[in-house]
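Troubleshooting: if your tokenizer reports a length mismatch, compare against these two reference records.
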Amino acid sequence: MPGEKKFIVANSDPGKAIWYEFELNDKDSVQQGRIFYNATSNVATEKGLPDGLKADRNGNIFASGPGGIWIFNQMGAILGKIKTPEAVANCALSPDEKTLYITSDMYLLRLKMRN
């Protein structure tokens, strides 16, 4: 996350489709971890698994997962989802954060964002 000593790891295991958040101590060693969000129950009904993610300058997380792109705040609360019919693998924000790019096996999607 921007300017912080935290990072998120996506676990792409269908039995544990979980995003984990870890903190770094003053010596940049991993200090503690927690479940950021558990999407395991969604795997049965939606295509895809937790995989690539990006944080915007406000700390909101855009993460590929079951059913498309999940949008979280810094605490792991769901702000919204961008539903896709195919599993997605990763996403990227343009430098001005007005466009979100989404990749899947056969597609590259471009989504214009509203501020």
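Reference record two:
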Amino acid sequence: MEIGRAIRERAEMLENTSLSMDFSYEELVTLAGYMGTMTYGKGATIFEEGDREIFMCVVVKGGVIILKRDERMDPKRVTVIGVGKVIGEMSMIDGSPRSATATAAADTILVVLSKESMDRLFKEKPHVGLKLLRKIAYSMSQRLRQTTGVLVDYLERNN
């Protein structure tokens, strides 16, 4: 079976990400078949806090700045997400509006999975879907651990 050029290109981009540790090349090709590619210029908004469109992205080139509004509604930089990392996965799990704004830190390429495509993946290729769900859960767990560490440091400095 001949794999489409765009699918192969996405699979090759995914090979240079954290997904490559958990997925075989064949599974990456399968996953890439459910995904698209988006390109953003430096400073472009990928999604805004409060948006309801549900999709997640893997950063394959460039980087993404995550901003959160403070009590005065001023945007504050939370972190920068680099190549190989996932953004937007929280909305894929809970369906809630975006909790932060994401902007391109540089010219950025993202491989994108919509909620509809993820649901289709679960039905058509449940083995790959389960691996993806585990990866999302792992990523969220690592970020929660990191956030907890930052919170403890903050609390210690302010006591």
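Descriptive notes for reference record two:
- Strands lie at 36-40, 45-47, 55-61, 64-69, 75-81, 86-87, 101-104, 108-114.
- The helical segments are 5-15, 25-32, 89-94, 115-124, 126-157.
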